[in-house]
Fold:
Amino acid sequence: MGEQQTKKMALSLVQPSGDLTIGNYLGAIRNFVALQDEYTCFFGVANLHAITVTQKAADLRRRTREVLATFMACGLDPARTTLFVQSDVHEHAELAWVLNSITSVGQLQRMTQFKEKAATHADNLNSALLTYPVLMAADILLYQTDYVPVGEDQKQHLEFTRDTAERFNSRYSDTFKLPEPLMPKISARVMSLKNPQIKMSKSDPDENAYILIRDDADAIRRKIARAVTDSEYHFAYTEAQPGLKNLIDLYASFSGFTPQDVVEKFRDGNGYATFKAALAELIVEKMTPIRERFLQLMDDTAELDAIRAAGAEAASRVARRTLSKVYRKVGF
Ligand code: TYM
Structure:
């Protein structure tokens, strides 16, 4: 496909494995919105990926709808952009199977996310956790994607995807485009509010470690007030003060200021309290309209279902073309 295509293709997926955080928003979803005008865009809900950890069926179904509603609440427009659910497009699983056949187990075992998950999910070390990157490669390669907007934690998976595409192309002749990640300059890795050494994650057991896209103003204020900083009381943007640095990055991302501007603005304040209060109000101001739209959208089941169905159709059209090419090349 795509020889005649004028616009470049951008694609990314988000797992419905928990409530989404402002890390997902700043690292990924907000940047999806910015790409809509320039690129042909496909954004999906990675529910096939989500079952690599145990899920309750009803929760997974609800969260899948929540991610779709979040996409739209953040500004993705289904009239311009394809929004789809991964399991609605069976080509993802089919291409993953083919790509599995050219992937070495050793390479998968060396992936950082697998090693981390193997440590935290030792009780459920299923083989889908190991082959997760192969499915992700299939997600991307099916659409002949040029750009993949993601947070920094997905960088290694993107490298794996390029490797896999190159391997297939050299074995079976040129088939897949090699995709490139697109990462924001600030907030490619939003850190936990409780431990700035680890990334903010929806699966963190401490709910004060993250701010959810659906958190209300009080929750946002409380969590920012409790965010760890340090006892230096010196307002600076340095690796030596990672908690404060993370908060400065948040302020910069939400305001459009540079981190240096933020330091300039707040360094004469007394301690960190003034800064934290201003940061909380900034996040409340930016996230409240999104939260309100999200709640409205979740009320309109019929609209979400219609968008999902249209997205499945549009995504399948593209995916089918690539998969049939692949099937021909491998001899099916
Ligand atoms: P997931 O669902 O964990 O996260 C969705 C997106 O949010 C980004 N992100 C962050 N960015 C900055 N700071 C954080 N603390 C933070 N936490 C999460 C992630 O980088 C991601 O962009 N494997 C993917 C889902 C996926 C995918 C794909 C992505 C499946 N297929 C194809 C791109 C293309 C994942 O687990 O993301």
The mean pLDDT is 95.
